[in-house]
Protein: TonB-dependent receptor
Organism: Lunatimonas lonarensis
Amino acid sequence: MKKNILRQLLMLSKRLMYGFLIQVFFCSVLLANTGNAQRKTLEEVKISVNLTEKSLSQFFRLVESKTDFRFTYSNRSVDLSQKISIAATDETLYEVLATVSKQTNANFVQVNNNIHVNRILANQLYDGEGVLAFSNIQLTGVVVDTKGQPIPGATIFIEGTSTGTASDIDGRFSLQTQEGAVLIISFIGYQSQRIVVSNQSTLTITLVEDQSSLDEVVVVGYGTQRKADITGSVSSVSESVIQSRPVANFEDALQGRASGVQVRQTGGNLDGRFSINIRGVGSVTGSNDPLIVVDGVPLFSSDFSTINPKDIVSMDILKDASATAIYGARAANGVVIITTKKGKAGKTQFSFSSDIGFEEIFNRFDLMSTEEQRLLFVEAFRNSNRSTSVYDDPTHPTWQVDTDWQELGTRTALRQNYNLGFSGGTDKTQFSGSVAHLDRQGTIINSDLKSWFFRLNINTEINERFSVSSNLTGSHQKQNVQNNDSWGATGYRSLIHNHSYTRPFDENGNLTAINTQAAPYFGANDNPLIDLMLPTRESDVTRVLGNVKFDYKLMDDLTISANLGGDIVHGKGYTYLPVYQIGLFVRPEGQVTVPNRREINWVSDLTANYQKTFQQHDIKMLVGFSAQQFMFDNSTVTGIGTINNSLNQLSNQINFNASGSRVSSGLVSSFFRLNYSNSDKYLATTTVRRDGSSKFGEARRYGVFPSGSIAWRISEEGFLKSSELIDDLKVRTSYGLTGNQEIGDFAFLTRAIATPYVFGNSLVVGNSPQNIGNPDLQWESTRQFDAGVDVSFFEGRIYFSADYYNRTSQDLLIATPVALTAGVSQNPIVNLGSVLNEGIELSLNSRNTVGKIGWSTNFNISFNTNRVLNIGTNSIGESLEIPGELIPLSNQPANLSRAGYPVGAFYMWVFDGVWQLGEESIARQWADAVPGDPKYKDLNGNGIFDVGDKTFVGNPHPRFFGGIDNSFDYKNFSLSVFFDFSGGFQVYNTARNLYGRGVPFVQNLAEVNDFWTPENPSTRVPRPSQGGNTTNLVTMVSDRFLENGDFIRLKNVALTYNLPSYLFSGKTIEALKFSLTGTNLIMFTNYSGLDPEASSRASLLSAGIDYTPYPQARLVSLSAQITF
């Protein structure tokens, strides 16, 4: 791996400083007058005052205007209307307050920049001058729990200051403070206490155990449950985790945070398309994406970058059948429930955050220099019996050019994100909303992303029985894109595809093109900046998502709810390929392409919730009905013909081509769930859902998906209830059935398409079958068994959870290949075979204290084994195999799905070095090879190179993955360090396949410098060649380009400073914090590509294929958040 972190950090530091200065400027305006007297005492501050018969409140305002002190008091203890008269010139504030104290009987106590005002009590002493003398109190005490046991390590701080201490092993502490000061006593797992210091010198403080971890509410389908009552497998990601780093997608915030959930980026643009796999992959050709539900609305569209992550308050991941079965037909791959922020009763509060950062590609390909390429050309042409005259002279001006295309085609990109949130309300009505803007330059030139977001949530209690809640979000996204994720010279790939001996610009600064002197017939001498800079490629997406929910309490135990939600997505694009002539490259006519798509998704739910408690029994019952419809239409129009780049609209073109489609699908469902609890010890849940889908024929349209689970909270039993080690212990198990309907619409029908054909001497258009319909097509189903344990130790300081699952997907929805003579363009979809996923999930959370430092650790790791159990047979009884996508040039697949192996496992030839001198006869017989040509293992032993020598060599799916987050708090500082990791998988690096072959048609990687020659026989790099059998052999899809993808990545480091609260006492501002964040800082891996997670294809049949998608970037940002 190539890391030049110091160089990149130095480059970023200058730009980051600009952003830092901007942030500091605005914040310093707010705080310019708050820091001058932070360390000054009343004796150090001098003031001039001249007041006659003025009120005490007027005196306070005068002092506050002339100093940095603020008065705090209670109206019940201080009479602000009292009149005073004072004349003081350049006297200390201590002396002025002493004079006022004598006139008003007021008691003044300084705590940092605050002056607390009280009445003088009888036991308070005066000095000889009549000035009130406030002696410090040496306070001692002990911190205990409700059983009277000492609590070591509890923190005791004076509110508004940085002064504090910690209790010792016996729970005792000592602290010097003053009367009227407020103590904050806290310890992990207990509720914090606030105590006002009076005239006592000793304290006994009793902390009550905090049950919030058990009472924590988890969002499940159509409702919520206490975490302690959950009988299924559910993982939750909190708001603090989601907001811990700047992300553009909620999937990115989820990565590495929840056990059993693998998230990887698969998209090729800044909107960052991700794939989410929960507990492995169960479908072969169908979808493996989980169901995403936002505020009760199940989504169909995958444009998740249109959802503002800063609006999210929690993400709950339902993993086992007991948790997911309530969603039945779409829950086979798990469910992710997203809840946005809601309002709280109280005064309206605003929060504004801004982060400015810089992104840079953190890895690059190591390529040959121009001189190294010249030597490669000489060797390749000599091996191919061609003339080398063009390349023999190293002093020729052609070879003096060494262009770094990766440097020219990329940049350090500015990223800005602004968010204004507000919330508040009364006891009856609460509201919450936000507006936000994200402006993100791309690290590839001429690419950027701009997003605008809006959200408004309102909850209203009409009366004691009737309430209404509504959620509305809107977004607009505009993106300039670059082509990525392909075999050839597009996007970032073009920067390593083209040779370095072509100049990017001529002497006038204009783009140049092919270097004809160097290689007149080589196509890789193009200037990649032409395609990056000249075309216009725009993409716009507008989305409106929302719902309205009505709740009516029919009786105390029964609530009827109606929910109506909708999701509308409109996407449009504009691509213009301009007219130009640069060197030998000419585009005589411009081309305009305008795609449009519209998605409308609506859902309607009607539910009844019944809850009853009698004696030790607690029953919760849910009955519901749901209807959902999804409509999608799209069209694409391409026009060609303009010869003037100013006429770049579709209407200005001459020749046109158009295509489009429109589909609609629906789902009708009824469901039931029963939760039972006995004494909070014995828990059970049963769920049944019946779905009817338009994607299947009438005879197979409906499916029933039941599940059941039980749990035993052993910690509530008498023999454990008094345990000082175990706070909560629960064992649980579940079994159930869920479904998958994610295939194209109307696969059960045979559809016709318009097809041109020759009739007589004329070309006419008729109809031909597009597919072979399957009226017996039915639900793909998943049966899942889960057994888990949740345990909490040491009064909540350590929490551990473990799950074992066995997940079998059957009746797989598979597109089976048919012979070309079938006369259809689409393979028919049938129900065949089954896939097993089996694994273990472990989570460990600990909350620690080291002196005055708070420290918490969250760790999760998941192990998964994936295997195709069977995949059916063909018409003559042979086992079916499903190959993956063909790799260009060789036209061979790298993946194959076969019974007994993982889905999309790597299946290819095994590279065995190069043929050596003395092996000529064997090499010639084997594949007409010569010394220096690549050698592959003869696995079937027949002495020739054929498909029988292929074998399974790797797995694109990680055997384990996870993350670990350590957070530290000290006074007003906090530090978070987060790593994610993945292992036990391989990646096929197509960049090495194309640029590591030693073929001079394209640029070559630096590793090719070690190519075979008679003088260098020990290498494993084949000899260079241009065409012929050597080139064919070196292009074969083999494990030579299959690499270990294991990695550990420092995903995020965030350092935060919260300004002390006393700075804002009595001011509009309530809180202000700064954060310095680094993302994707370091990756430890042996993978030679840009990113081992870069699987360019969402289809599992071609998983683990790296076509060099839009590279992930290292981000360093500075943010500020102000609450007022």
